[in-house]
Write a structure and sequence with these properties.
With 182 residues, the chain is an all-alpha fold. It has a domain of 117 residues. Helices cover 75% and strands 0% of the residues. The longest helix is centred in the C-terminal third of the chain and has 32 residues. The radius of gyration is 18 Å and the shape is elongated. The two termini are 34 Å apart.
Length: 182
């Protein structure tokens, strides 16, 4: 069962296919980098916060207030947590991609919708249940972070996933084939 190949439309999800793993890694990395860039920009423009402050905020989900005084260790912990969450976001989208025809057939709509779902999940469940210090709600930051999640997390995950499966289906050579097989 572990070697079952799952392509869009097949509901079996036990998978060790290179396409599935490649899609998770590429879309997770793309979402992680783009979302971090977006978060850094909006935090700097709207509040004058540094990238280290953003990563310490992420780390405060586990360490609470201590994350702001732990220095580089909390910055690295925040980076690690963000990257792991981006991989989870990519994996969940890939599962939905394999199960749902709407997600496969409408990557822009499903990616933007998925960004909204990610934002709702983060702000409705993850942050309230974490050790992040309580803050006053800020409508500007909420709307900007929603835009970042939609355009820098949901949409890249959807488009990279679509590309990975399209490239596999059409056997378009990817960068790994160009590097290792020349």
């Amino acid at each position: 069962m572990a070697n079952v190949h799952v392509y869009p439309g097949n509901r079996l999800m036990v998978r060790r296919s290179p396409t599935f793993i490649k899609a998770i890694l590429l879309s997770g990395i793309a979402a992680s980098l783009l979302q971090l860039t977006g978060m850094f920009l909006i935090s700097w423009l709207a509040r004058g916060r540094s990238p280290a402050d953003v990563l310490q905020f992420i780390a405060s989900g586990i360490n609470g207030e201590h994350a702001y005084s732990d220095g580089i260790t909390s910055v690295l912990a925040g980076l690690f947590l963000h990257c792991m969450f981006a991989l989870v976001v990519a994996t969940v989208y890939l599962l939905a991609y394999s199960w749902t025809p709407f997600v496969r057939n409408h990557p822009f709509k499903s990616g933007m919708l998925y960004g909204v779902i990610v934002w709702l999940f983060m702000n409705g469940a993850v942050i309230p249940l974490s050790h992040v210090p309580l803050q006053q709600p800020d409508p500007l930051m909420a709307s900007l972070s929603l835009a970042v999640d939609v355009f820098f997390a949901g949409l890249p995950v959807a488009l990279v996933t679509q590309y990975c499966f399209y490239a596999h289906k059409r056997h378009v050579p990817d960068i790994t084939e160009l590097i290792w097989h020349t």
